[in-house]
Design a protein that fits this description.
Nuclear Transport Factor 2, Chain: A; alpha+beta; about 190 residues; 5 helices
Length: about 190
């Protein structure tokens, strides 16, 4: 089995055993990495792995049978891959810097709000100075003040036609009669 064509078929079969018959596409090329060590490259037909390929590395020393070293999927030029790994210490430093920035921004907003509130208080004090306060007689209670207020207020009351008021008062709603019947049964 020293023929390159035989070895490419052998590598293709190894890739199909690993990834499945439908996952491995056509043979692309052979890369000779060292004497006796070759990688056979095949297309990948796995969904979600567009731009990837199968690599089967075979080691065959002179005069011996070939051995499969590894079968892996490798990303190609147009493959979608994960971003480079960032150590936790760097990610934590970025997080702490962001938190410090957010705290500084919140403190600035709080200072602006306090300044705006103090300006509003100054304006309210100016308005209070313009208003004249009148003392109410001490013997007047809240109830008496409410009565005076209600007596001095005019209400617009619309009168309903007599037909509607008579019907409503003569016949109570149905659930009231049910409650009355139940109350009568208990008292008997």
């Amino acid at each position: 089995m020293s023929n390159l064509k035989d070895l490419s078929e052998y590598a293709g079969e190894a890739a199909r055993l690993t990834g499945g018959r439908r996952a491995v596409g056509n043979y692309i090329r052979t890369d000779e990495e060292e004497p006796g060590l070759r990688s056979y490259i095949f297309e990948s037909t796995v969904r979600g792995y567009v731009g990837w390929y199968w690599s089967v590395t075979i080691y065959q020393p002179e005069g011996q049978e070939p051995t499969i070293s590894e079968v892996v999927m490798m990303p190609g030029d147009g493959a979608l891959i994960a971003p480079k790994w960032v150590p936790w210490s760097e990610r934590l430093a970025d997080y702490k810097a962001l938190q410090a920035e957010l705290e500084a921004q919140a403190a600035a907003e709080a200072a602006e709000a306090a300044e705006a509130l103090s300006e509003e208080e100054v304006e309210a004090d100016e308005i209070d100075e313009e208003l004249e306060l009148v003392d109410a007689p001490e013997e007047e209670t809240i109830e008496q003040a409410e009565e005076v207020l209600l007596a001095s207020t005019e209400f617009d009351v619309e009168e309903e036609p007599e037909e509607e008021t008579n019907e409503a008062s003569s016949k109570p709603p149905r659930f009231f009669s049910w409650k009355n019947r139940r109350k009568n049964k208990k008292s008997n």
